[in-house]
């Protein structure tokens, strides 16, 4: 009855057509991080930030889960132990593939947050600056996204799960952003078997015991099949 914790990043959604961040033509090549993914950027130019997330919300809605998302949902349904997916992604492809035990540690495009009262609700496809909060009515809706310098969500649950992990896999993440990039060290401290699944070794690749290199739509189903046949 093994406990499996899986961290995913933008690479798992790449073959669904969603851009990653740090590829040459990626999101951070098109926008300065400071301008669109920090609270300061939002304060400085809220329309630019709201437009950035409106575009990504629309792209995510048009995208489809791929074989990697589906394999993780199948693992959760078929594995006799626990399976937790912790995603850095803000798209909803894991949910749409059927994953249930899922934490969006960097928030979600489909959620809106009130900067005044912390109320959350389902975001409209197109948000506008000054949208009213559905609870307190203040004109303070913002994308429910964790920006740089903000605390990622559900960190207690994540560290609790890492402390009990028998297997830890990181899929499609470059290992550049903390605290997510530090999860492999936590899992190793708990004695977990660690594997990095990516096109190439990430910045923290050397901390993993194993690596499975190749496109996620091939490597993730293979990895899941191996786990279920163990
Ligand atoms: C925090 C928003 C603490 C959502 C994101 C100085 C000042 C302030 C903070 C810091 C600082 N120095 C360090 C920090 C911490 C900072 C950080 O880590 N900075 C880095 C850049 C040095 N972290 C934070 O600020 C975090 N918060 O630390 O809070 C705190 C403490 C107390 C009180 C308050 C706060 C918050 C981090 C979250 C930031 N938000 N995005 C959005 O817009 O989407 S980060 C952004 O990067 C996304 O969330 C993304 O998920 C994440 C990581 O990127 P990846 O997913 O890895 O994507 P990337 O493009 O990089 O890589 C893609 C990978 O896929 C590659 O490896 C590629 O090879 C692979 N791949 C591609 N195609 C495929 C594939 N693999 C398989 N198959 C394929 N087909």
Bound molecules: ligand BV8
User: How much strand content do the residues show?
Assistant: 15-25%
Domain module tally = 2
Q: Please state the second-level CATH architecture of the largest domain.
A: 3-Layer(aba) Sandwich
Largest sheet: 6 strands, parallel
Number of helices: 10
Major sheet strand order: 3-2-1-7-8-9
Helix content: 25-40%
Give the tally of β-strands: 9
Q: Rg to the nearest angstrom?
A: 18 Å
Order of SSEs, N→C?
A: EHHHHHHEHEEEEHEHEEH
Offer a quick outline of the entry.
With 230 residues, the protein is of the alpha/beta class. The chain has helices spanning 11-14, 27-30, 33-36, 39-44, 46-62, 67-78, 93-97, 155-163, 183-189, 216-229; strands spanning 4-8, 83-87, 102-104, 107-114, 120-122, 141-145, 167-171, 193-198, 210-213. α6 (67-78) runs parallel beside α10 (216-229).
Q: Which structural traits does this protein have?
A:
alpha/beta; six-stranded parallel β-sheet; Rossmann fold; SIR2/SIRT2 'Small Domain'; 19% strand; 2 domains; 230 residues; binds ligand BV8; three-stranded antiparallel β-sheet
Describe the structure in your own words.
This protein is an alpha/beta fold. It folds into two domains: 4-18 and 65-106 and 153-229, TPP-binding domain (Rossmann fold); 19-62 and 110-145, SIR2/SIRT2 'Small Domain' (2-Layer Sandwich), CATH 3.30.1600. It is 36% helix and 19% strand. It is built from ten helices and nine strands. The chain has helices spanning 11-14, 27-30, 33-36, 39-44, 46-62, 67-78, 93-97, 155-163, 183-189, 216-229, and strands spanning 4-8, 83-87, 102-104, 107-114, 120-122, 141-145, 167-171, 193-198, 210-213. Strands 3-2-1-7-8-9 form a six-stranded parallel beta sheet, with helices on both faces. A hairpin with a 5-residue loop joins strand 4 and strand 5 (120-122). Helix 6 (67-78) runs parallel beside helix 10. The model has no long low-confidence stretch (mean pLDDT 96). The site of ligand BV8 has 35 residues, from helix 1. Residues 9-11, 14-15, 20-22, 26, 37, 88-90, 106, 145-152, 172-174, 176-179, 198-200, 202, 215-216 line the site of ligand BV8.
């Amino acid at each position: 009855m093994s406990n499996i914790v899986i961290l995913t990043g933008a690479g798992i959604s790449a073959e669904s057509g969603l851009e990653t961040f740090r590829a040459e033509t990626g999101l951070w090549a098109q926008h300065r991080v400071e301008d669109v993914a920090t609270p300061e950027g939002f304060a400085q130019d809220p329309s630019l930030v709201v437009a950035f997330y409106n575009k990504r919300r629309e792209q995510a809605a048009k995208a489809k889960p791929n074989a990697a998302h589906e394999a993780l949902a199948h693992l959760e349904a078929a594995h006799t132990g626990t399976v937790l997916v912790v995603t850095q992604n803000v798209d909803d492809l894991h949910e749409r593939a059927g994953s249930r035990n899922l934490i969006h540690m960097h928030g979600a495009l489909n959620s809106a947050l009130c900067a005044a009262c912390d109320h959350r609700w389902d975001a409209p496809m197109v948000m506008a600056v000054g949208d009213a909060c559905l609870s307190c009515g203040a004109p303070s809706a913002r994308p429910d996204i964790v920006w740089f310098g903000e605390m990622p969500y559900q960190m207690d649950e994540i560290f609790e799960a890492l402390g009990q992990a028998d297997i830890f896999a990181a899929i499609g993440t470059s290992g550049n952003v903390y605290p997510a990039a530090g999860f492999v060290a936590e899992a190793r401290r708990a004695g977990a078997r660690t594997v990095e699944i990516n096109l190439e070794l990430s910045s923290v690749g050397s901390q993993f015991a194993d690596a499975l290199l190749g496109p996620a739509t091939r490597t993730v189903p293979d990895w899941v099949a191996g786990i279920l046949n163990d």
